[in-house]
Amino acid sequence: MKAFTKICTIALLALATGACSNAQNDGLNGTLWLQSSVEFKANALGTYRLGAMMLDAALEDKTWTAVPAEQRGDFAAKPPAVILDVDETVLDNSLYQAWVVRANGRYSSKTWGPFVDAALSKPVPGSLAFIKTAAAKGVKIFYVTNRSAPTEAATRKNLVKFGYPVDTSEDTVLTKGEKKAWKSSKKSPRRAHVAAKHRVIMVFGDNFGDFVDGYKGDMAARQALYEKHADMWGRKWFMLANPTYGSWESAAFGHDWRKPGPERRQMKRDALEAWQP
Ligand SMILES: [Mg+2]
Does the residue 34 lie in any domain? Predict the structure, then answer.
């Protein structure tokens, strides 16, 4: 019994410190699904195919805009554009997420920076075909990302590596903090920047914040905002599935990443609506 208690104590200590090679990490299933499942691939491919099917209708209807909050004045004659987020929308960073899971760590700019610099991210299924189709129809492609301004060169390198069109006549990779007005993770100033000269016909993202600024509300507020925009989804707004991270997770703990890990985890468990047998 004494020996058993000792083994259990050692195992618990190993788990608590993350030293155990098989340590539990909340990102395991999501990362495994995003990185290796055909279910993820088919889901992403279908989302982009739906976007391609909507292109002609969006181009013909000059009153069509996917950024009603940011599209100002008479935009009918403006050239069309599509806005896409980068991470887990166009580029798949599951190599980084897999490292986080195995190390039982968490995202940090100190490890994310070198990963981005290595330009190892892979295309999200369907994204390249959709973007090429849209570009061939005269649609300008803008990448609006919360990657930081210093990582823009490496991000461009990673995009170009797979043949994603990146305009050279003007900046179409709009990073966080690149301009003073773009310091926030909230993307509306950058959507407005694109909408000033273009009619934005579609937005693609994996996070609610890729579409609206109110993504950091509580779950009820997010639900209300989602319902308010019910007619956008699958027509003008296209959401990629991302079970590895996002504001859906932090909504469970008030988006407060300063809270200790066990407290955040408890709040996520508490947020579940569960059957009681
Ligand atoms: Mg993203």
Answer: yes
Q: What is the mean pLDDT, run by run of 10 residues, along the chain of 277 residues?
A: 51 49 88 98 98 98 97 96 98 98 93 97 98 98 98 98 95 97 97 98 98 97 98 98 98 97 96 97
Task: Report how far ligand 1's centroid is from the alpha carbon of 144 (Å).
Answer: 9
Would 131 be classed as within a structural domain? yes
Burial class (CB in 10 A: 0-12, 13-18, 19+), 45: middle
Q: pTM (2 decimals)? A: 0.92
Q: How far is the CA of 108 from the centre of ligand 1 (A)?
A: 16
- Ligand 1 centroid–CA 272 distance in Å is 24
Instruction: Give distance in angstroms: CA of 206 to centre of ligand 1.
Output: 5
Whether 12 is covered by a domain: the verdict is no
| Distance from the alpha carbon of residue 89 to the mean position of ligand 1, in angstroms | 6
Ligand 1 centroid to residue 210 C-alpha, Å: 7
Q: If you measure from the C-alpha of residue 88 to the centroid of ligand 1, how many angstroms do you get, rounded to a whole number?
A: 5
* Residue indicated by tokens 């968490």: 106
Phi, psi values for residue 237, rounded to 5°: -115, 130
Number of domains in the chain: 1
pLDDT at 22: 77
Q: Provide the terminal-to-terminal Cα distance of the chain, rounded to the nearest Å.
A: 34
- Tell me which residue range forms the domain holding 56: 25-257
What CATH code is carried by the domain that includes residue 170? 3.40.50.1000
